[in-house]
Amino acid sequence: MGTIDATMPNLDSVMNERKAFDETKSGVKGLVDGGLKRIPEIFHCQPDKYEKANNTSHVIPVIDLVDIDNKDPSIYQGIVGKIKEACETLGFFQVVNHGIPLSVLEELKDGVKRFYEQDTEVKKDFYTRDMNRSFIYNSNYDIYSPPALNWRDTFACYLAPPDTLKPEEIPVVCSTDTHQIKGVFEALGLNPNHLKDMDCAKGLFALCHYYPSCPEPELTVGTAKHSDHGFLTVLIQDHIGGLQVLYEDKWIDITPVSGALIVNIGDLLQASFLCPFKSVEHRVLANKIGPRISVACFFSTGHWSSSKLYGPIKDLLSEDNPPKYRETTVADYLAYFVEKGLDGTSALTHYKI
Question: What values do phi and psi take at 50, rounded to 5?
Fold first, then answer.
């Protein structure tokens, strides 16, 4: 009979600890508010094998859209060229002078913060794991799946199609935020005809994250390494920072720029276009300074029932350019993404041919 490795955690004990944490309905913020000095082991993650890059040689591009409507085609193509280069190399870029007032972005972040800083008993009424609700507040959507939990709380708002938004489910303190998020997308005009024809723009939801200060940030992460499952993501982050992109096996900081929006390619866009657009893995560090606020808006139709298959665009296929991923519905891809959890691997790998 073999011996039991005393260093291995007891799985039942770990699951019970996660269940107990979930049942408090107060999230990570509840731990911090309780005066926590050492973080529970369920948040301890393995040391990352990648080093941090020197940001003087690796910088996430900041692209100025002030002349995007210029009638001079060379100016327009110059901006498009910068976006294309960013999508093919880093998969991430920031945009400024996008037409959305700074006051709108600041109020959006303030609204998210107001929700989390309400009395815990008020927030508990919204704590749920029912994915069919249009407003979902919890901590770690994949609470029983990953090796370690992330140091953050989240609420999700489903904003499109229109019938997914149920005003009666939205907390009063957040009611204006949902309209501001939709306004961000309308102002950007992020609906190229090809994506629109593919129904990529029919689904829209936002993840509003709250990263409390962490007493032992070296032991955990705010969000584990992952790539985004949807088509395109637009992110608003505050001044604290912590978002990093994995490039050439090194972590690159996305330094906060006042008023900027961060845009990145998602898995389904990479899988649909046979071009070198990259859905890049990224993470968020935990920090002793907090709270950090971010709002990630996704083009995806995962909550919208459809049998439409997504995969390589047929017109782009050739003998020299064969398909790299098998077709899937958005709902099936999202279901796999959720079941897998943020375990440090890309869901796209599962669909490689």
Answer: -95, 145
